[in-house]
Specification:
The complex is a heterotrimer. By secondary structure, chain A is an alpha/beta fold. In chain A, 21% of the residues lie in helices and 30% in strands. Chain B is mainly α. Chain C contains 15 helices and 10 strands. Classes of the chains: A alpha/beta, B mainly alpha, C alpha+beta. At the A-C interface, strand 3, strand 4 and helix 3 of A face helix 1, helix 8, strand 8, strand 9 and strand 10 of C.
């Protein structure tokens, strides 16, 4: 299916949960959706007989600037061989996005990484711990307003 | 040899003490040579050269340098280790493998102690090694060491059964447990060696013994106790310096002990393969040692060729393959001798 | 699979014996965690009840570094260091992402050079993977045989770009140097030499009875689990899924060559066991040789760098590009804000994703099997921790 058809199908089912869709004039066509709806939409994308997005290629946490952070989902269907990108934005003050771990198992570690580096809190994640940084690290380094701490455990950080 | 010494020195105690040192005079240079050989054999099997610098010609002094380094090294004892056991275990392990040399005939003129139950004694005393390994693993207070020790205890104890059964097949032919007598019965040309008797039963017994002896000395493919990709170094993880060297020495001494038993029991020991040609006590030492070294070479060859088995597969091989076949050997030899 | 018997056992005297699980630490300094991975093993005797991986010991802040660069090209040396056994493939994926943002086409000669380099790198990487896998199950010798042949590939790389491990060779818009004049001839000689070597490996390791016993029916990964966990590369194909990005989501000039995608068939045990993952790598080396030979024959003359400005400023936008690295799908998610510095670079590393399935397939096996399973996943910690 082309990105247009996928968007049509999603709009028909979820209506106003789809806030925006850029399908032409961009490198990768993407659909912006509301954070609360991501789990239902993800489940629909995976299980719908026409879509069958069974492979979550990548899940990236991004600091979009202007007080917004978010998550980008790159999906692929093994059987239908089509792709789509989903984007979700939330405010930095309340960075909560439902977890899709129960839909694609691979999201487990990807979401832990996004939590670790960007600070997105995935609600419903079974094991939301830091993954790359030490468990007692403070702050989320990939946020654009991140300040490198002076000391970590008594060790000087900037060398 | 013991009588000559007693007459010469006029004192039993000094004479027997000197006698007891003879195997040690062999073991230490042998271990140095065997470690060097192991490195060279592995290197040439793997398209490498191995040690080439120390001492000049093909790095012949490499292991001597190694042992000098080990002597100088700090002896590290983990702070939470059981210090007494930790200190004791390398000696127990070494004593276990050294004591086995007491009844092994090096030549028609030299045997440490010519006792009637020589073979039985060797099997029994080499079990002391297990106690030492368990002590080492337990006292190190390291979970990986404990794993290694438990594995090796289970492994050595279970492989003693097929190896003893295989030896019983030969004892039934010889009618004696005295290793010197077993040797004398195989004198003459090489077809008198027991390994060629009653084909294929004794040969099968030899194969069973050899496989089981690999496991008893913790050599690949049965080197689970010190499996370096799983347990890092097993029971001797927490040892350093001379204590580690003692474990190493014990391992190589053990390798020679089992090879010597294989040579003595199945391959005529100090007997020349060509009847009286190149016979005699001095040539006997040569034949005995070269047969032993040949089996050691095979052990090394296998080590650098085969992957390692898993613990449960190891037990499977012992109990479900080797032990039943060892019984087949005993029954076969028994029936053949009766008929 | 083994049953754990953790229920209480009554001794012969009627006393109840308590048994409990033990937690042991495997790594970060352990010979078979292939680097600084730390696994927390919950074991019942020798049987593994649970595995909890702890990552991050080799975290070098790749993504933060990339955002601090002053030029898109400057990120490439850092890409080299992601998967240090397959630097070419890492560079290529990043360069493709940059080119896609810039919307440029590279000269055809560049495409061929890149294919040749990437496939040589795949062979080199698989040789390390297979050799260390032999080490993991206790066979020392194959490792050195494979390193002997890997050296020849590294010689070819050194001849081309001067480096043996971290090449910085594939740039956005082209490659750093043209092939030296004797390269084609030497590469062909290597291909001719290498084919029979694969048989030697098979004789020594692949079809060794003990090796099969150790790896067949161990760590079985069913196809649906593999897809759900996002596994890729030999891990996914070992589970019987016929999927290869080079063929199913083609990039560069791969569709001009004749070659096969190798999948695990469960020849020695169950589909998706460690042996299947191993044999997929062995057969992929053969296919890579096929591709290289065809590419060497067809390689056209031409420039090796397209005309792009020294300082690249792509239009604002984002893209996700994925390629097939030796370990699986390496993807780069790149966001440009119109300046000369990448706004966000996310590396989707195959080993990171493949490793996440490990706890699931390790449960119920022995400690020795955990080593075998981890080896068959073929992780490179530089890429897991980034």
């Amino acid at each position: 299916m082309t990105p247009q058809e996928i968007t049509e199908r999603l709009k028909a089912t979820f209506g106003d949960a789809i806030t925006d869709a850029k399908l032409e004039g961009v490198v990768d066509p993407f659909i912006k959706i509301k954070a609360e709806a991501i789990r239902e939409i993800a489940l629909f994308l995976r299980d719908d007989i026409e879509l069958q997005f069974d492979f979550l290629m990548c899940l990236s946490g991004v600091d979009f600037g202007k007080g917004l952070i978010g998550v980008v989902y790159n999906l692929y269907s093994m059987s239908k061989k089509h792709k789509i990108t989903l984007k979700v934005e939330v405010s930095k003050e309340k960075p909560e996005i439902p977890s899709v771990e129960s839909i694609w198992k691979t999201a487990n570690w990807h979401e832990r990484e996004a939590y670790d580096l960007i600070g997105v809190v995935f609600t419903g994640h079974p094991d939301l711990r830091r993954i790359l940084l030490p468990y007692d690290w403070e702050g989320h380094p990939l946020r654009k307003d991140y300040k490198v701490p002076e000391y970590y455990q008594g060790m000087k950080v900037p060398y | 040899m013991d009588e000559i010494l007693i007459n010469f020195l006029g004192n039993d105690i000094i004479a027997y003490t000197l006698m007891a040192f003879v195997p040690l005079v062999w073991i230490v240079p042998y271990a140095l040579f065997a470690v060097y050989l192991e490195r060279k054999v592995s290197a040439h099997m793997q398209d490498r050269l191995g040690p080439m610098y120390t001492g000049g010609w093909h790095g012949w002094a490499q292991t001597i340098a190694d042992i000098l380094k080990l002597i100088q090294k700090e002896d590290i004892v983990p702070s939470s280790a059981d210090k007494k056991l930790h200190l004791l275990s390398p000696y127990v392990v070494f004593i276990g493998s050294y004591a086995a040399f007491a009844t092994i005939p090096f030549s028609s003129a030299y045997i440490g102690s010519n006792i009637n139950i020589g073979l039985f004694y060797v099997i029994a005393v080499s079990s002391l090694v297990v106690a030492g390994l368990l002590m080492a693993g337990w006292s190190s207070n390291n979970k990986w060491s404990l794993f290694g020790a438990m594995r090796s205890a289970a492994q050595i104890v279970s492989y003693e059964i097929p190896s003893s059964l295989a030896l019983i097949a030969v004892v039934m032919i010889a009618g004696s447990l005295n290793l010197q007598e077993i040797n004398q019965m195989q004198s003459g040309w090489f077809w008198n060696w027991y390994v060629f008797k009653y084909p294929p039963f004794v040969f099968l017994a030899f194969v069973i013994y050899f496989v089981a002896s690999l496991a008893e000395t913790n050599r690949t493919p049965f080197d689970m106790p010190e499996a370096e990709s799983e347990l890092v170094a097993g029971y001797h993880t927490e040892y350093s310096g001379m204590k580690f060297a003692l474990f190493f020495l014990a391992e190589y001494a053990n390798m020679f002990a089992v090879s010597a038993i294989a040579a003595t029991v199945f391959f005529g020991g100090w007997n020349s393969p060509f009847g009286e040609f190149l016979g005699g006590p001095l040539w006997g030492v040569f034949w005995f040692l070269s047969k032993g070294m040949f089996f050691i070479f095979i052990q090394m060859w296998l080590r650098w060729t085969l992957p390692r088995l898993r613990v449960d597969q190891l037990m499977y091989v012992s109990w479900k393959v080797l032990t039943p076949w060892a019984f087949v050997c005993i029954v076969g030899v028994g029936l053949w001798t009766l008929l | 699979m083994f049953e754990t018997g953790l229920e209480q056992i009554k001794s012969s005297t009627g006393r109840v014996l308590r048994s409990q699980e033990m937690i042991i630490n495997m790594g970060p300094q352990h010979p078979s965690t292939h680097g600084v991975l730390r696994l927390e093993l919950v074991v019942d005797g020798e049987i593994v009840v649970d595995v909890i991986p702890h990552l991050g010991y080799l975290h070098r802040c790749f993504e933060k570094h990339a955002e601090a660069m002053t030029n898109y090209q400057q990120v490439i040396p850092y890409c080299d260091r992601l998967d240090y056994l397959a630097s070419m493939n890492m560079d290529w994926a990043y360069a493709l992402a940059g080119e896609k943002l810039l919307n440029i086409q590279v000269p055809e000669r560049v495409e061929y050079i890149r294919v040749i380099m990437a496939e040589f790198q795949r062979i080199a990487s698989h040789l390390v993977a297979l050799g260390t896998y032999g080490l993991d199950v206790g066979a020392f010798t194959p490792f050195l045989y494979m390193f002997r042949d890997r050296e020849m590939i590294l010689d070819l790389f050194e001849m081309t770009c001067g480096a043996r491990l971290l090449y910085n060779y594939i740039w956005i818009g082209g490659v750093s140097h043209d092939l030296p004049s004797t390269f084609v001839e030497k590469a062909k000689a290597f291909c001719k030499y290498f084919r029979p070597e694969i048989k030697e490996y098979n004789d020594l390791l692949t079809f060794n009875e003990i090796f099969i016993k150790r790896t067949a029916n161990v760590g079985v990964l069913p196809a649906d689990v593999a897809i759900s966990y996002g596994c890729s590369g030999p891990m996914l194909r070992g589970s019987g899924v016929n999927f290869d990005i080079r063929r199913d989501d083609p990039y560069s000039v791969y569709n001009k060559f004749q070659w096969d995608v190798c999948v695990g068939k469960g020849e020695m045990g169950t589909v998706g066991d460690c042996w299947d993952r191993y044999i997929v790598r062995v057969r992929e080396m053969e296919q890579s040789i096929n591709i290289i030979e065809q590419a060497l024959d067809q390689i056209p003359e031409g420039d090796v760098m397209s005309t792009i400005p020294k300082r690249i400023r792509p239009n604002p936008g984002d893209c996700y590009v994925r390629t097939e690295s030796p370990r699986g799908e390496i993807g780069f998610y790149l966001i440009s804000d119109g300046t000369g510095t990448p706004y966000r670079v996310k590396a989707r590393s195959p080993a990171f994703v493949n490793l996440s399935v490990c706890p699931d397939i390790c449960r119920g096996y022995m400690i020795a099997d955990v080593v075998a399973i981890l080896g068959s996943v073929d992780i490179v910690l530089g890429e897991v921790d980034r």
